[in-house]
Write a structure and sequence with these properties.
mainly alpha
Amino acid sequence: MIDALNSDVLALQEWLQGAWRRLTNPNLTRFEQPELRYYMRDAERALRAGLQQVAARDLAKREVSNEVPAIKRINFRLLQLDT
């Protein structure tokens, strides 16, 4: 899943770069331009979601590696008994 997520994010980034280049093409019809922009918006949403998932995964990895051991030190308190 990790590699698939990274490859999806990279594929979306590459597609968007190509779409921006294609958008500057003067041979696009006035009907193709809005449709391309629509697909670009969808790709940007998907890319944003993928980047958030990657960031959450990396944050979880860092939290696990910095986790405190489960053994806790117990503080004892001695009471003085009056006899």
